[in-house]
User: What shape does this take?
Amino acid sequence: MKLDRRTWFVILLLMALAALPLVATLAGQEFQIAQFRRILIFAIAAVSLDLILGYGGMVCFGHAAFFGVGAYVVAILNWHAGREVPLIGTWMGTNNVLVTWTAAVLVSGGAAFLIGLVSLRTTGIYFIMITLAFAQMIYFFFVSLRAYGGDDGLRFDGDTVAFGLIDTQDDAAFYYLVLAVLCGVLYAGRRMVNSRFGMVVQACRENERRMKALGFPTARYKLAAFAIAGATAGLAGALFAAHESYISPSIMHWTRSGDLIVMVVLGGMGTLFGPVVGALAFLFLEKTLPDYTEHWMVVFGPILLLLVLFARRGIFGWFLPKEERDGGSH
Amino acid sequence: MAAATEALLAVEGLVKRFGGLTATDNVCLDIRKGEIHAIIGPNGAGKTTLVAQLAGEVAPNGGTIRFSGRDVTRLPVDARARLGIARSYQITSVFRAFTALDNVAMAVQATDGHSFRFWRAARNESALRDPARAILERVGLGARTDVRAVNLAHGEQRQLEIAMALATRPSLLLLDEPMAGMGKDESERMTRLLARLKGEETILLVEHDMDVVFALADRITVLVYGRVIASDVPEAIRANPEVRAAYLGEGDA
Amino acid sequence: MATLLFLEQTLNGLQLGVTLFLMAAGLTLVFGIMNMVNLAHGSLYMVGAFLTATFSQWTGSFALAVPLAVAGTFVVGLAVETVALRTLYARDHLDQVLATFGLILFFNELVKIVWGPVAIFIDVPAFLSGRVELIPGAPYPVYRLVVLAVGLAVALGLWWLIAKTRIGMLIRAGASNREMIGALGVDIKRLYTLVFALGAALAALAGAMAGPIYVVEIGMGDSMLIKTFVVIVIGGIGSIRGAFVAAIIVGVVDTFGRIVPAQLGLPTAIAEMAIYILMAAVLFWKPAGLFAARA
Assistant: This one.
């Protein structure tokens, strides 16, 4: 079997990520494992955004809110379990990741469904502003939740054992769990975008009017895609909560939604794997640029502008076969 | 015989106003099963607006549209499409980044149940690809299946439009100026395609080219300033003095 | 007592409303005419506030500093439009979002370099300090009344500009039908630049006047920007009238949203959320806003 450049790139990068804990340990830089685990968690969120942004053409400027909702669901359940404070009736929350992560996915997916229900009635500039405004609403909701720390956030004892197999306190084990989830999301995402459903979503991006004339009730497909993307972002948020054992509304600040869009475009929109590259590049820059200048944003802002003007294909886009570059239907 | 001539589409007293302009003025229209029914009229007669109302993209201010005996006046576009009304656009409207085959397969998919199927690769489904290939063959694009729509010639894109409309297996085809912007050769090819469809499909044809209209149409409706001034078989339309005065006499026939 | 509180809060709400209108007026035109998403509008609000702080220090006069800051931001607007935004009009919305998001980061950091990271407090100028008993028993800050008056005056001036002048005619034409102004043989590039800079100046005025009420700090424009979005969504893109009505509604609802739930013993979580719930309700009912400029 002959592999193209793209496949080589994906394989090499995934192998490098798989080898990272080992390399970091050998180099005596164990703290890097947690660093990269955080990056991979954001990569999952970025991939979920690509489903609607890249494939569906929906410029959602509130994706960090779904990430945050997922994180808060886990945090609140854990906090109650840790403090033995009743949450509903006599139920004191839980530390069981099967329950907490599933709840995170369902609640953030449900939030995305409701927000999508209103937002998707609009298009273009309206859609961008409305998703931003709804995300802001959720942000303020958690800011004003005094019982869970409000602005200051919530510290809790996270789950320690995931699925009875993986100890989330073990940096490397948890890292591999996150990497596995990322690979699973990438694989499922790949299946989905090429499925009948995925084709419908992409065709809606291309020409929604035509889709309606063909007989597709487009609204419900777009809404489903929006909810799936929100639920997946919620899963990433759940992982993030377990990763940090601390959560505050700042993770769903509106600039975080902007960061996610930047990751997707920087890496290569509508490619699923591109956002992984984008998350790596973005969070790497965010970490290293401050070493050169305290005012790195003054450089990074214009870089974004130049990126938009001259390199819309993104980093991963350069590795795509030529015929896939411009139309982006695959 | 009565069943054969019963109206598939029945339009009664349709009215559409844009501000002070009446684009559709009390239009009544019958399309019978199996016929090619042409709508002609000078520019600005309201032909495209009429098609948009029949397809459900524009809501009329008054009147009713009945399709297969059912009132569809208030139904949205996609619901009408599922009942069997398919359309092509005056300005080519295809999925530009998709290949010709992808375009038609999408249309086939529209009639093949819901699309909440998340796992199997749609491009490997013979249930979608085989019928799509057959239809591309039928409209003369059999050799161009894997070319992206954006890279097709203008005339080929128009053929693709027809193929997509056909792929939904409609009982009524609304063709809005299928020859728009075509060269002579392309027009001839399209005319032959429409001639092949004659008798197999029920077609409402909006067209400027009078030679094509009189060659293909079973009946013709003449629209002037949104009003129907005549609706009859081609010979009667040709002989109609009012039509000649209002339209054919203008010299572009 | 409840009546007095009500009246006082109504005035507060109106004052926030006119401030939001100053923000929304320029932005809704940029959206409507250029079909352009500009996230950096909040940055111009911030620049206006910081320039006011500096000019106040230099001249020792707030009254002099405000027009200077507005003029300064007008120039900044001209520069930003010419250098960066002009090339984005033809791009899709995602490009515009990204590029202007980059501009926000740039401006926030630039302000930090020039003015430092510490928040600045501007004193209410002496001649506008104090309170006046507009309503017997409820002394109200003079400065806030002046802000309200200036806002209303600018709104009136803007109405005159849009309704009665040739430029206004072109702007109206542009907001409802972009192709038309091209057909009128107008130099669209210059019209665009002018509209953008005008919007920048209005945002700067809002920022300048907000300075003594709130704090002048980095990122102060961001939360204003999002509230402005809510105003525009409710009012309808491209509609000045819609922007005015919606700004007043949002200003009043936001102000009362902070008072009423606590008074009624409701959870205060609703406070910040009130305007977003309002927006969702309007959208569900009218997806194109209350006064959609385009059919």
